[in-house]
Amino acid sequence: MSSLLTAEADGARLSRRELVANCILLLQAGHETTQDLLGNAQVALFRNPDQLTMLRDNQELMKNAVEEFLRYDASVQINHRVVLDGMTIGDIEIPVGGMIYIFLGAINRDPTRYPDPDRLEITRDVTSHLAFSFGAYYCIGASLARIETAVGIGTLLDRLPELRPATGEFRWRDTLQLRGPQELSVAW
C-alpha cells in the first residue's frame, strides 16, 4: 500500500478514489484466496499423514511445503485471458478478442513436469508452478499469500499438535474459479 501511495507515472499519482479502490481490491482478493489456500493445505496434510508428520517434525521445510501446497491444490484453479493477437493453438484458431481459459490446477499436475503429480510431497522441487499465474498477470499478493500460509499452517502445527479432521469427509465450496473447503471440521 505504501508503494501505491508513492507511485508516480509521468508526474501523475493515483487519486484518493483509485487508492481506496486498490486497497479494497487487495484486501478482498487476498482474503478469500488465502482462506482457501489455508483450508486446501490443511486438507492435503490430513489426507497425507506422512507429510503432516514430516512437516510437524521439521518446520524448516515450511517454505518448500507452501510451494507444494500451491502446486498441489491452489485456491485459484482457472483464469481467463482476452486474446490481443490472433493465434493458432494446435488446429484451433483464436481470433483477436477471443477468450481463452487457463486451467492452472491442471497445469500444476502435469506429469511431464511433476513426477507422481497427484501426490503431496513437501520436499518436491517446486520451482515453477503457476499457482500465481505468470508474466504481466502474476499475482500482486503472491509474497503475502506465501507468508500468511506459512504462518497459518505453522501456528496450527505449533499450537494444536494433535489437530485432526473431526470427520472423514470434506465439503468444497461450489465455485468454478476458486477452490476451497466449505467448512473444515477439526478436533484436537
Describe the structure.
The chain is an alpha+beta fold and 188 residues long. The chain has a single domain, classed as Cytochrome P450 (Cytochrome p450), CATH 1.10.630.10. Helix content is 43%, strand content 13%. It is built from six helices and eight strands; from the N terminus they run H-H-H-H-E-E-E-E-H-H-E-E-E-E. The strands form four sheets. Strands 1-4 form a two-stranded antiparallel ribbon. Helix 2 packs across helix 4, helix 2 crosses helix 6 and helix 4 crosses helix 6. It is globular, with a radius of gyration of 19 Å. The protein starts with a helix and ends with a strand. The mean pLDDT is 92.
Helix vs. strand class = alpha+beta
β content, as a range?
Answer: 5-15%
Main β-sheet, spatial strand arrangement = 1-4
The count of β-strands is: 8
Query: How many DSSP helices?
Result: 6
Total separate domains: 1
Helix content: 40-55%
Layout: helices, strands, pairs:
Layout: H1 2-6, H2 16-47, H3 49-57, H4 62-73, E1 78-82, E2 87-89, E3 92-94, E4 99-103, H5 104-107, H6 142-159, E5 164-165, E6 171-172, E7 181-183, E8 186-187
Antiparallel strand pairs: 1-4, 2-3, 5-8, 6-7
Helix pairs in contact: 2-4, 2-6, 4-6
Spell out the key features of this protein.
two-stranded antiparallel ribbon; Cytochrome p450; globular; 13% strand; 188 residues; alpha+beta; 43% helix; single chain
